[in-house]
Amino acid sequence: MERAKRAAHVVANASDTDLSSSSQPPPHGSASDATVAALPLDEPWSVNQVLATLHATPPLNPSTPIPFLHILERLKTTPREGWRRFSIPNPESISDHMYRMSILTVLCPSSLRQKLDIPRCTLLALCHDMAESLVGDITPVDGVSKAEKRRREGDTMSYLTRKLLGPSTGCAEAGTLLREAWDEYEASTTPEAKFVHDIDKLELLIQMMEYERRGEGRVDLGEFLWVAEGIKMEEMKAWCSEVLREREEYWKGVGKVPGGVDIAKTILARGEEKEEIVGKMLKKEEQGKKDGINKD
Fold this sequence. Notes:
Radius of gyration: 22 Å
Order of helices and strands: HHHHHHHHHHHHH
């Protein structure tokens, strides 16, 4: 909210788990090439406008992908904004978030693994927030429409994948692959994209729980629990419920009632109801098998 009033933004988080903004200074590195430059939100935005703020502007026709990699370094050093608003010490960077998401794709449950292209899921996880390197963390309080946010991110991906990974670099095919993967994630129509959207939310909830535990009862991040309601796949709902149960037990242990309790209870109740239905179905199926054996 403070950032909206100051009409500036940092770090892009172009996913459906956009975190709220903060006025705290970036703990990762300094506000230079390593972080996204603050630009007035009420001025027309362009990739060139952001590039003009860099200490070293990438060449027009690079001969190698090195300039592309320099831009990606900003993802490693720019913190996710929501945690900064809560003054979380040394919060995760955008790359931190995408790394654990990528690991989550590798850990995909066997029931989903049979239906998904796991390497494709990993690729989507690795590039879904890539536009954040130049766009900035556009949050709901920043006053930027979804259409405008999408334009900025699309322009950034075009620049990264077609200019910095153009034919002169010998990596044009890789650039096309990255752009297509990003577009697939944004469209969220393929099973792989839907799965990665789910783990995007799940990773946030896991991180939320870890920061609360680290805060020893002084940090309540319950306002982020709303993302749990957006998880669609049953297998990911089960993992989400595990995180929520872990959180419930933690706050019981410190003798406090955290925020988001009603949301958590609703989700856990749905999970328990689902488990009960599945359990009854399995018992019925098992009984049917036994009856068949007895008849024989």
